[in-house]
Structure formats: C-alpha cells, structure tokens
Specification:
Strand content: 25-35%
Bound molecules: adenosine-5'-triphosphate, magnesium ion
Number of strands: 14
Structural class: alpha/beta
Helix content: 25-40%
Distance between the termini: 52 Å
CATH topology: Rossmann fold
Order of helices and strands: EEHEEEHEEHEHHHEHEHEEHHEE
CATH class: Alpha Beta
Radius of gyration: 19 Å
Length: 268
C-alpha cells in the first residue's frame, strides 16, 4: 500500500512526496492508428502509485481509446504500455479493473454478477461471501441483491459496476466517465465509492467532462486534444492556469478547432 502522505497536494502544486510516488505504469509513445489515422498519437504518460489521474478533453479526443490501450483491451499500433517496468501482460491486467461508461452486466442477478467477477479471479468460499457482502453494502444494493442486474437504474448499475470492480481489490482502477448522465445524488454515491478506493491506496485513472469533479477527485490532469496529450500537471494548476491553447479554450467553454486557432464563442 502506498504511503498516505503521497496523497497531499499543497497550494495547487504537487507535494514533494507525491512527485516521488513510485511509477506504476507508463505509456511510451503509445499510438492507435486504424486505417493510418492517428486517433491516439504518440502519448507519453506516467501513472504513479496511489495517485488519482483525471483524463480530460473534448468528445472524440481519444480518452476512451487511451484507457482501453492502457488496460490492454486494444493492441497499440505503436509504442507500448509498461507496467512496473515490464510490458503489460495478462498478469498485470488482473491487477487492474475498468468500469465503462455504460456498465457491462451479466444477464444474472446483482449477487451473481459479484460472485462471477470474484470466481474468475479464483476467489471462492468464505472470502468470496465476505467480499460480496461488503460490495452489496458499499453499493447500497442489499435490498436488490436477487434482482436481475439489467433491470437496475443507471445509477444503481454504475454503483454495482464500481463495487464489483473494487471487490476484486485492483491495484489500479480505470473509470470511463463513471457519473455521466447521473443525477447529483447518484454522482455523490459514486464519488464516495471512488474516495473509498483511493483511501485504500488504489491508483485511479478517470475520465470526466466535469470540471468540478476533476477538482474534487483529481490529483493530476492529463488533457488530450486530437489524440495528443497536450498538457499534464497538478489538477488545480491545470484547471486554473492551463498552459495549452486547447485546454484553455475547452476549460473556458470556447470552441477549439485545431492546434493553431481557437474560435471564439458567438457573441450574444
Ligand atoms: N476501435 C475503433 N476503431 C476506429 N476508430 C475508433 C475506434 N474507437 C473509437 N474510434 C474513434 O476514435 C475517436 C476517439 O474516440 P474515443 O472514444 O476515444 O473518444 P473520447 O475522447 O472518449 O470521446 P467522448 O468524450 O465522446 O467519449 C473517435 O473519432 C471515434 O469514433
Ligand atoms: Mg469516451
């Protein structure tokens, strides 16, 4: 488990302890170019143990693709993903979990969805029962345990997907817009689960379009534009004084069409 001191950010600057957090994962010149067009373009990115990295950028910037590449769900066209100094392999993938924007549920009950995820990781018996109970409690789904997972509301499904991922005790958790289209109460429930995961030392890489959420949950921000990583830094600094034109325009709510020109919003 990482040292709790690694989590501190002071005055919008990464604390010296945080800067020294051990490197867990790296993207090295990572690219994804189906049909020759780079949708993720030579991305270099460090993911440090116990940190919460928020990935931001416009629709189509390549955020979801980047997460899929990092998690090993897509083969890169170029570059590599490195996990603890070695190329990402199946064993490393089992130390990670991913929650998708639209939760993927088995056509089974809530409880069976939890049991299955643990069973495929070889967790059985008393330990599995303990983790299932804990996940149901965390997700506040005890009353719905025997219901088919697919009839749950969007917020309930998202809580189940997150609690199911946490039950597998990953070292790194990828979250692709975990609260998109959820109301404030459901968003708060999900943010509390993410905070619980972070408090347990789980490293988090999360996509969000919500600046408030990035401020609440992010230690660092990586900003993508047109498949390129145009800016990284401590969350408070990037949100308040972005260096790149693309991040500045996006955070100010202006349209930004390419790297060279930004289009001002129409005057009212
Ligand atoms: N498997 C694929 N093959 C080819 N093109 C793809 C593939 N997956 C995504 N794309 C395209 O790559 C671009 C980036 O997609 P991606 O889903 O990563 O965007 P995003 O930044 O997550 O956007 P959003 O905020 O809308 O979710 C899009 O133009 C998309 O249509
Ligand atoms: Mg996406």
């Amino acid at each position: 488990m990482p040292d709790a001191r690694l989590k501190t950010i002071e005055g919008g600057r990464t604390s010296p302890e945080a800067a020294q957090a051990p490197l867990l994962m790296q993207a090295r010149k990572l690219s994804f170019c189906p049909n020759g067009k780079p949708l993720v373009d030579t991305v270099d990115l460090d993911i440090r143990e116990g940190r919460r990295l928020v990935v931001m950028g416009a629709n189509g910037a390549g955020k979801s693709l980047l997460l899929r590449l990092l998690h090993g769900l897509l083969p890169p066209s170029g570059g590599e993903v490195v996990w603890q100094g070695k190329p990402l392999d199946r064993a490393a993938m089992r130390e990670q979990a991913m929650v998708f924007q639209r939760p993927v549920m088995l056509r089974r009950s809530v409880i069976a969805n939890l049991q299955f995820a643990l069973a495929v990781r070889g967790i059985g018996g008393t330990e599995r029962r303990r983790r299932v109970e804990e996940a149901l409690e965390q997700a506040r789904l005890g009353d719905l345990a025997r219901h088919p997972a697919r009839v749950l509301s969007g917020g309930e499904q998202q809580r189940l997907a997150l609690a199911r991922a946490l039950a597998c005790t990953p070292r790194l958790l990828f979250l692709d817009e975990p609260t998109a289209s959820l109301d404030p109460a459901s968003t708060l429930a999900i943010e509390n689960l993410i905070a619980t995961a972070h408090a347990r030392g789980i490293t988090i890489v999360m996509i969000t379009h919500d600046k408030g959420q990035a401020r609440r949950l992010g230690d660092d921000i990586a900003f993508l534009h047109g498949g390129r990583l145009v800016e990284t830094g401590p969350a408070a600094r990037v949100l308040e004084t972005p260096n790149s034109g693309a991040a500045r325009a996006w955070l100010e709510g202006r349209l930004y069409l390419d790297d060279l020109s930004s289009t001002p919003s129409p005057t009212p």
